Amino acid sequence: MDPIILKNKAISDIKIADHILVMTYPIVQDPKLLKIVLQKLHSAIKNSMMSLLYYEKKQKRISSFNESYMSMLTYIKKHLIKYNISPNYLIFLSELNDLFEYQKKSDIEFIRKDKFVFTNKDYKLKTLTKEDMKTLLIKGKLFIKEITDVVR
Known about the structure:
This protein is mainly alpha-helical. It has helices spanning 3-28, 32-58, 69-82, 89-105, 130-150; strands at residues 108-112, 115-119, 125-128.
């Protein structure tokens, strides 16, 4: 897989997520759009991590790797330090994946006021708000910017 193509896909996904949150959501006011923003953000982050790892593979610095999110997170850890990217992103990456997986496996989803709520069988609730997604999107943009500076 070409790291440049993955990098461009990550940039495209983050732009779509941003557009939905900043332009579409205020007009439509449908909290279901927050779910799409979460999915696009997760896709963008995953593609950016893959672009860095394929870049490293292309440079023959690593051999093959598993493309699952959590195993890529393990590989990424070493490379963040190598390229002077803050290790604090690891917490963000892990939390984003946990939220995404929880939403994907949720049994019930509904809207309550301006929140998109999802729950599992045990009725443990998680919510998405516009402010939550703005925070995640800002961190995601910064992470992708760091990665795109490395992968050229």
